[in-house]
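Hello Y.,

Per our agreement to keep a running log of every chain we model this quarter, I'm adding this entry. I've kept the format consistent with earlier entries: sequence first, then predicted structure.
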Amino acid sequence: MHTVLEALGTIGIVPVITINDEAKAEALAEALMAGGIPCAEVTFRTAQAEAAIRRIRAAVPDILVGAGTILSVAQVDKAISAGAQFIVSPGFNPQVVSHCIERGIPITPGCTTPSDMERAVEFGLEAVKFFPAEASGGLDYIKAVAAPFPMLKFMPTGGIHGGNIARYLAYDQILACGGSWMATADMINRGDFKGITGLCKEALQHALGFSVIHWGINTGDPGEASQAAQRFSTLFGFSYKEGTGSIFAGEALEVMKFRGFGTHGHIAIGTPSLPRAIRYLEQQGVRFNHDSIKRDPKGNMTLIYFQEEIAGFALHLVQKK
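Predicted structure for the entry above:
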């Protein structure tokens, strides 16, 4: 996959930006970065889009900037000249798609039908925009049509918000989700960049969807583990489920048959997307034990431990099912 698309997938959220005043572009980019979302799709719905992209690339080079609502070959050239790193179009325009391929810039054209998706595959595209997402059937529709197109990733936009973004991102054929709720045109016009940063942080937490999945308790041997798990089951009516290396008492207590990671045990933190969570936590200074990684039969990462402990407990991320 193109490195720009890989970066978008790791970020997971693409703020869709409408700028009416190019002078606010730099402050907006800094607000997005401060909120933990180093990405923006600047729409060509206003005459200021080209200049805004140019100013963002010059002032905040670490942010990934694309051009959205691209409707013509001429707009593609303007966007590339301004420094756009990816192109997004609302529909599938063969001329626009072909021109982007010729120019070597990734494009995610709008595709909502299997016929659109077949054309995208024919053109060799790796990702498409799904717009308007919720109005077109949402995630259930994407899952229904995605099966014949395992080579395609989707970037749903339209109707995405904090309440549903984690559900979208949990599906492995979702590249990223686009949305404007964290940086609306009104907020940009008012210069409410502090508010934009706050909403970006909130959106990021919704997307990461962290939650405690279970606690692991270390014991010395299988007999001690069985005794502890049976006691939990007897006292609280929890189910008793024995595995190779541990016994679950209910869904949230895992009693280890040996002394595993952590002085006392471990805490499993779930997230809908391990790669995105790892990127975010590494930016917070977290270091991971890459020797601990587990993968499913498809090769997707399902678990990774932190190097640190908290209060004697090791931590590991686990992919939510």
